[in-house]
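YM 10:42: DHA2 family efflux MFS transporter permease subunit sequence, as discussed on the call
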Amino acid sequence: MVIVLLMGTLLAVLNMAVVTPALPSIMKDLGVDSTTVQWLSSGYSLVEAMVIPLAAFLMGRFSTRRLFIGCISLFAAGSLVAAFAPTFPLLMVGRVLQALCTGAIMPMVTAVILLVFPKESRGTAMGITGLVVGFAPALGPSISGVIIDSFGWRTLFVIMAAVALVVIALAAVYLRNFDGFQPGAFDPVSVLLSSVGLACLLYGLSTFTSTGNMALTVALIVIGVLLVAVFVRRQLKAKEPMLRVGILDNRTYAHSVIIVACMQAALMGCNVMVPMFIQTVLGASATASGLAMLPGALIGACCGIVSGRLFDKYGIRKVALPGLTVMTIGGVLMALLGADASVVVTACAYTVLYAGLMFAMTPVNTWGINALDNENIGHAQSVTNTVGQIASSMGTALIVSISALSTTLAPTATEHAQSILGSTLAFAAIAVILAAALITALLTTRTRRGATERTLAGR
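YM 10:58: structure's back
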């Protein structure tokens, strides 16, 4: 059962990673420009984020089998539409169908796996899930590049559709229903508030550093924040909320969400800045920047499963704090990079940061989830994933904006010197965010060892 769920997760995560290398080919074949084609990625992320808050409701309303098979079937349909789309709008429809599946299935799979395993083994379970999620983005672009060069971009979607059909067949045979999700009330107003609010907020944040109309962008961000705030208030007042945001009253869970949000914000900012630093400051190629990040992604994916097992044995403090410390050291090393650094040195610093972050991510996530009752796990995954999406967008916008300050601070410097200064400022900001995560963990994990660490805090 778990293997089938993980296959669905792998398919969803790979789908997010494999399309980017295909964008130049799609531009050429369908006759669209770069601004239009990027919607295959940004539009996908927006739709996915809009669906995530609804995942808890869907988990409570539909059985595990029906929801999983329905989502994967929708994914297969979207893949086929994309594979044979003669025009860009139809290709976009296929991507939207895929995103609807991913937004619902990612929280569901994690929630089911957490409920299948007892609390004493959830760290290991989360580590296995993290291994799948970590390897997919690391290997996806390389695999898709080979497929695109050999067979064309449409083959990517054909392969994804074929794999989806295999997953559906396996799910029909091996996947059982799992009772444990409490149904929430369907509220059309809440759906509208969360969907429009998140769309405005995330779109505004994603275009903040490249917009030609700053007033409109800021207005979208403000509208998004207000609508999300109204959504949260509505959920807190409802007798049967669609999404139980009130679980953030549990201090342990709230602290874990804050720590993870800091890590995701810093990571997304770093993933944007590292290629820019390697290419603009060091003068290396795009291929070199991709290869520089690969060791960190591979090692980090393995770190999660190790730290998950250690968490089950030793609890949060003895496992998460070393990872967070290493992560912060990696951030400081990144901030110390200059024009005299090499690609190898940059890769080593990034690997330290990423490995430490992934080593801490699994235990921190599991620590927060274990503080909640089982009936709230589905809602917790929706809340955590939604906050993560917002944090990632905010992190990217903040870090890139800080990098752009170099032109104001050194207006007479050369472009290369401004790039060096901008990278230093951005990496320093990343180190500060990572340090904030470490300090938060130091202040909030002061409990006794063992199971008590994971359950008493927040009661």
